[in-house]
Amino acid sequence: MDIRKFFDIVHVEHVICNPTNEEKLTRLVALLRLPANAQVVDIACGKGEFLARLAEAYEVRGQGVDISSFFIAAAEKRLKSRAPGAKITFKQMDAADFKVDEPHSLDLASCIGASWVFGGHANTLAVLAGMAKPGGWVIVGEPYWRQEPSGDFLAASGCTREEFGSHFSNAEAGERQGLELVHTFVSSQDDWDQYEGLQWFSAADYARTHPDDPDLAELAERVSKAKTAYLRWGRDTLGWAIYLFRARSAI
């Protein structure tokens, strides 16, 4: 089963394709206080909710990048309906290949919940820090271990112990890149439950309305395995947060 098709199916009900909520995203956008014509980029932008909110709140210019044609189509539709005059474009590509025209030129560079694109949290921060101008924003979303993961959970989820750090180490990684952490938006268990539960709901609904899809067996297997891992271990083991960093101005 094509992984992009899978993610499109299980995220069809999601407004935000991460374990957070709309109230937290609203507070994040309000804190940014971007100037008119701010230059922004959102890496692995999903359905474009963050960029749509930036366009509604500020006169930003910029790009959203995602490898999924499903998500790019949804993002373009969302932006057109909510901010039709916005100077934001979407590009379908492997986000790891995205380059800005000039280093340290953006008012905001974000990659919320997709650090795997750049090989992990620290590398993602390094890439985004190279895009942001002095005083600009670097925003990432990243899991962290709430407690030591069991071997059973690691085996069931396909994660490794080294894949994630602690909430503190996620913050510290930005400081090592010369960034200043100014806020975190930590996800609650309710945020996680909604994110995971909507995937189960969407997969079940898709199976009901597409009974002849040859990928149904694989879809059901993948969702069932993820559901068991989450309910049995993951809910108590894995946290998630959005980290709001500011690039320090040159002295």
Structural write-up:
The chain is of the alpha/beta class. It has a single domain, classed as 3-Layer(aba) Sandwich (Rossmann fold). The chain has nine helices and seven strands, in the order ααβαβαββαβααβααβ. It has helices at 3-10, 22-32, 49-57, 69-82, 121-131, 151-157, 167-176, 189-209, 216-237; strands at 39-43, 61-66, 87-92, 106-112, 132-145, 179-186, 238-247. The chain has a seven-stranded mixed beta sheet with strand order 3-2-1-4-5-7-6, sandwiched between helices. Strand 1, helix 3 (49-57) and strand 2 (61-66) form a beta-alpha-beta unit. It is globular and about 50 Å long. The N and C termini lie far apart (52 Å). The model has no long low-confidence stretch (mean pLDDT 96).
Largest sheet descriptor: 7 strands, mixed
State the shape.
Answer: globular
Mean pLDDT, all residues: 96
* Strand numbers in spatial order across the main sheet: 3-2-1-4-5-7-6
Number of E strands: 7
Which band does the percent of strand residues land in?
Answer: 15-25%
Provide a count of the helices: 9
CATH class: Alpha Beta
The CATH topology is Rossmann fold
What is the fold's blueprint, element by element?
Layout: H1 3-10, H2 22-32, E1 39-43, H3 49-57, E2 61-66, H4 69-82, E3 87-92, E4 106-112, H5 121-131, E5 132-145, H6 151-157, H7 167-176, E6 179-186, H8 189-209, H9 216-237, E7 238-247
Parallel strand pairs: 1-2, 1-4, 2-3, 4-5
Antiparallel strand pairs: 5-7, 6-7
